[in-house]
Structures are given as C-alpha cells and as structure tokens.
Amino acid sequence: MTVTPLGIPRRLLEFTLDGEPVRAPEGSTILEACRAAGKDIPTLCEGDTLAPKNACRVCVVEVEGSRTLVPACSRRAEPGMEVRTGTERARHSRKIVLELLASSVDLSTTPRAAEWIEEYEAKPDRFGPDAARLNEEPRVDNDLYVRDYDKCILCYKCVDACGDQWQNTFAISVAGRGFDARIAVEHDAPLTDSACVYCGNCIEVCPTGALSFKSEFDMRAAGTWNESRQSETTTVCAYCGVGCNLTLHVQDNEIVKVTSPHDNPVTHGNLCIKGRFGYQHVQNRD
C-alpha cells in the first residue's frame, strides 16, 4: 500500500486565468496553476526539482497591471490577479525566443521544441546562414557522459544541480560573457581533470540533450536510439542502504540509461555515480 504524506495544508487563493476564475494553493506559481487548469505553457529552463532561474523566457504570460510580460515559472499567483496566457503579445514573444534559440543552438533533441516552433509559427531560418552558432564538436573525454555545447541554451539548470541546490560539488559554472558565455569546469579543462564526481545529476536536469549518457550519444550516432522501443522499470538501487529509486530505460533487452523519479522522497531525481552509471554488471552474460 502506498502512503502519500499529506503535509501542511495550504490555503487556496482565487484569481482569473484567461477570463475564468481558478483556485490554486497559496505559494503556487502561475505555471503550476496553468498546468493544474490544463493549460499548456511551453518552458525549457523550468524544472520540478530546482528553483526557477527565469533564463529561457518561453513561459511568459501577461498579468494585468504589469508593464512587462512575466515568467510564469517563477511569478507567484496572487489573489485577484488577472492572467492571460494566449494573447498576441505573449505568443509573439514566445515565437521570437524560439526563433533566437533555434537559430543559435541545435534543438533536435529538445523534447517538444519542434512542436512549439510549429505551434508559434517560428521561423529560425529567417536570420540566415550567418546566425551566430558555436559549431563545436561534442566533447567526449570520459566513458560516462558527453558534453555537446551546440545544444546548450545556458539555462543554468546543470550549474544549480551541481551547486548549492543539490550536489554541492560546484564543478561547473558559467564562464565568459556575451556570445562567449558557456558552461565550463575550472579553466575549461577536460572533465576528468575537474572536481566532477560523475553523479550525472546535471544530465538529469538538462532540457536539451547538451548533456547526455555516452551510451545514448553512441546509439544516436549509430542511428539505433529509439525511445518508442524503450521500456521503463523503476527499482531500488542495490549498492547501499539509502534506498534510492532507479528508473531503468531498456531497449532490445539492454539497459541504455538510468534516471530517477523526481517525486521520490529519497532522491528527488538525484543519484550517485554507482546508481546512475553502474549498471553494466546487470547485463554481463559471461
């Protein structure tokens, strides 16, 4: 029997969402209220295990009385506020952001990016072939995961997961300014020479595939990666007694990567190097 902790009850507040009265628990963000009401608001940098960073600006909405569009991922819902999610101004802003992102980075492995580009009629190609792109080869300097800066949108989620919000390793941060800004380890050294402990929690939160399992990277390069043929099984890590939950992603009877449920009260999506990468012995058939 599954026991769901009730926690401290929160008061409900009322406000108007696209002309309809809605209720949301006190402290909810506009984005959380929109999701509860069944409204699909695009977002890239928001994550359910991290504090919002307001970096991608794809989730902006209009709030009555606000001079500017506000990010739904971090703006708290307030009693009596009037929120409009699908106005021409909000849709145009999302369109421009998607065009700028898609023209400068590779969003091919970003979930739903192609869908949103079509929905908002974004045209990244209108900036022409000279649009600023990094055009850097993926960095493969270890056997566990790959860094592909051509897919990085500088959402800072990996920095937060590595830093004070979860791992407290502080192996990575933002280096450089302007067009030269990038996620890097100290002195932009190889990952093997950094403070990285290879927990892979940065991969867990990356929204674009800029960080990916080496196994997934190799299978994509070979054209064999197929999520429609993959099954997911949640189990308990056997390495120690903490009780971390693992979700095994299996394709063709082989484990291809390991994640962790974000709603698990023990891990909240986080794992150590053994839990995330130490699965090869399971399929050793010698």
Automatic annotation (TrEMBL):
Entry keyword set: 4Fe-4S, Iron, Iron-sulfur, Metal-binding
2Fe-2S ferredoxin-type domain ranges (all copies): 11-89
Cited SUPFAM superfamilies: 2Fe-2S ferredoxin-like, 4Fe-4S ferredoxins, Formate dehydrogenase/DMSO reductase, domains 1-3
PROSITE patterns: 2FE2S_FER_2, 4FE4S_FER_1, 4FE4S_FER_2, 4FE4S_MOW_BIS_MGD, MOLYBDOPTERIN_PROK_1
Domain 4Fe-4S Mo/W bis-MGD-type intervals: 230-286
Pfam families: Fer2_4, Fer4_7, Molybdop_Fe4S4
UniProt cross-references to InterPro entries, sorted A to Z: 2Fe-2S_ferredoxin-like_sf, 2Fe-2S_ferredoxin-type, 4Fe4S_Fe-S-bd, 4Fe4S_Fe_S_CS, Mopterin_OxRdtase_4Fe-4S_dom, MopterinOxRdtase_cofactor_BS, PSI_iron-sulfur_center
Residues in 4Fe-4S ferredoxin-type domain copies: 143-162, 188-216
Protein's recorded name: 2Fe-2S iron-sulfur cluster-binding protein
Species of provenance: Streptomyces atrovirens
Taxonomic lineage from the root: Bacteria, Bacillati, Actinomycetota, Actinomycetes, Kitasatosporales
